[in-house]
Specification:
Oligomer: single chain
Shape: globular
Helix content: 10-25%
Number of helices: 4
CATH topology: Rossmann fold
Strand content: 15-25%
Number of strands: 7
Length: 169
Amino acid sequence: MSRRNGIGGHQSAKMINDEWITPPEIIKALGPFDLDPCAPVIRPWDTAKWHWTINENGLLAPWNGFTWLNPPYGKFTARWLERMAQHNNGIALIFARTETDMFFRYVWDNASCLLFMRGRINFYDVDGKRANVNSGAPSVLIGYGIEAFVRLEDCKINGKFVDLLYHKF
């Protein structure tokens, strides 16, 4: 099996591809979005009204409006989540690694809600082709702010919704 087939390779220093596209049905269920700050330069469909690519450096560019964040998975994921927590207006998609320092700092202590998705999702290549294998780990949608709370609570994505806004642990 090639590392290119699934995003589990994002955890490897030898990864070949770090650009994986969110399945369109997830964007459709949660959108519309104003901004995707880490969109691929070439993409088969839009994920938001505006896209920052590696060329604009979405970590440094201004963020406005309701934001979709499917960050590069790996050593910089925490920096993207930190920025989303500061922005506090959007939804992020990452692996459900709930025990990590990153999760405690930028999710448990900042997010308004979580949606743990049932099963593992298949991402897409930048050419629009669905990956041959699933992501290799469970995923979670993380809501930041009231609008994200409402969208995740009301969406039809199969999973378990966790209220962090009104029911702090």
